[in-house]
Write a structure and sequence with these properties.
It is built from 13 helices and ten strands. With 391 residues, it is of the alpha+beta class.
Length: 391
């Protein structure tokens, strides 16, 4: 919460803390105030034609949806002239995504079904109704698109879609879709349960918190569901002992689970519940020592010309640090976009991922990276490949 620059502010951190049993006192209020200033200034300022940097600096619509969740976490309903403009922006985003999917459902959202679901959820907790046709696109995707559940990213998407459906069901904002929403929720729950690994995770350790947020608040409890949730929580507790969760954004998804809460609880948040004051961690000053350096081979494939370069960085550097180092000392160029789970690659060496493409990060031997680029810390001698792939 000390990181207050526009690039580092993230509503997810505030939401996670508010849905926990701890509070940060005045720092918490200051963080929300900073969020309000930053998001209103950047999202409501007039569009500029100067260069691309202006649009790059604006939060994504997924971040706007999280901002709406943050307001509800403080028991605020969005309103007023500025609030109505932000709601209109989010509704326009959903309408644009609906058109990208197409009348015959053969297309895809320009962003993702994850952000599409998050947008519906954010409007729902503020009692803002979206058109039946917008909800219908998400319902059709769950009913007819099996690729939505192929890896851990899709478990995240299914969980977010499920929470959007849960909110719509509880709020009854789209009564004509009620039966389909009910069936879709059941289908989402079944698919996530089938994705549970022998270790207990749903997809993997990082997708499990969102899955548990959905399943623990299920209106359809069963013995199978209860057993699966207990196994997943035990796996998460073990991962905490091994300090697996280091990224504050991932921790912000986990905090509600540890406190038996979910984003759906923001329909009616309890802002009077007592929360213990969180004491800042005492940090011992590090001893001065010469940093050890490691060498990482960075490769880019899927485009021409390809790229291959060895990067020397201090041990413990994140993959994002390595990419920045390569950019500062050579022809390597990259761009990222903020997301709930941290930054992800949108452009490498000037090549932007198209509508049905994405930049996949692999570590040797040819293993897709499951952590975010800000989280993963390569080892000495490791090879990191950035590969443009279609889907």
């Amino acid at each position: 919460m000390d990181r207050l620059s526009p690039e580092q502010l993230n509503p997810s951190i505030y939401v996670g803390l508010r849905l926990s049993s701890l509070q940060a006192g005045a720092k918490e209020a200051h963080y929300l105030h900073s969020l309000k200033l930053s998001y209103q200034q950047s999202l409501l300022r007039p569009a500029s034609n100067k260069d691309d940097n202006d649009s790059e600096a604006k939060p994504s619509m997924g971040q706007l949806a999280l901002y709406l969740l943050a307001l509800r976490a403080n028991c605020e309903f969005i309103g007023g002239r500025k609030g109505d403009r932000l709601v209109s922006q989010l509704k326009r985003f959903l309408e644009d995504e609906k058109r990208a999917i197409g009348h015959n459902h053969q297309g895809h959202p320009r962003t993702s079904y994850y952000q599409y679901s998050l947008g519906i959820l954010a409007l729902c907790v503020h009692q803002k109704r979206v058109h039946d046709s917008v909800v219908g696109k998400l319902l059709y995707a769950v009913e007819h698109k099996p690729h939505l559940l192929q890896d851990h990213v899709s478990v995240d998407t299914m969980a977010m879609a499920g929470m959007a459906f849960s909110c719509l069901e509880l709020s009854n904002l789209n009564p004509k879709q009620r039966n389909r929403i009910n069936l879709a929720l059941k289908r989402v729950q079944e698919k996530i349960l089938k994705a549970q690994t022998p270790e207990g995770y749903f997809g993997n350790v990082y997708s499990t918190p969102l899955a548990l947020q959905l399943l623990m608040g299920s209106l359809r409890p069963s013995v199978e569901l209860g057993t699966a949730c207990l196994k997943a929580k035990a796996a998460l507790q073990a991962s905490l002992q091994h300090k697996t969760f280091q990224n504050p954004l991932m921790i912000s998804q986990l905090l509600p689970v540890l406190n038996q809460k979910s984003y759906v609880d923001l329909i009616s948040p309890d802002c009077q519940a007592p929360r213990a004051l969180l004491e800042p961690a005492l940090e011992t000053p590090p001893q001065a020592k010469v940093p050890k350096f490691i060498d990482v081979l960075l490769k880019v494939s899927g485009i021409s010309p390809s790229y291959r370069h060895s990067v020397s960085v201090p041990a413990g550097s994140s993959l994002e640090d390595i990419l920045k180092n390569a950019q500062e000392h050579g022809r390597f160029r990259f761009r990222t976009q903020a997301s709930l789970s941290g930054p992800f690659l949108t452009s490498v060496l000037g090549r932007k991922a198209g509508e049905r493409e994405f930049w996949q990060v692999l570590r040797d031997p040819d293993t897709p990276l499951q952590q975010g680029i800000a989280d993963y810390r390569p080892k000495d001698g490791e090879t990191i490949e950035l590969r443009l792939v279609g889907w």
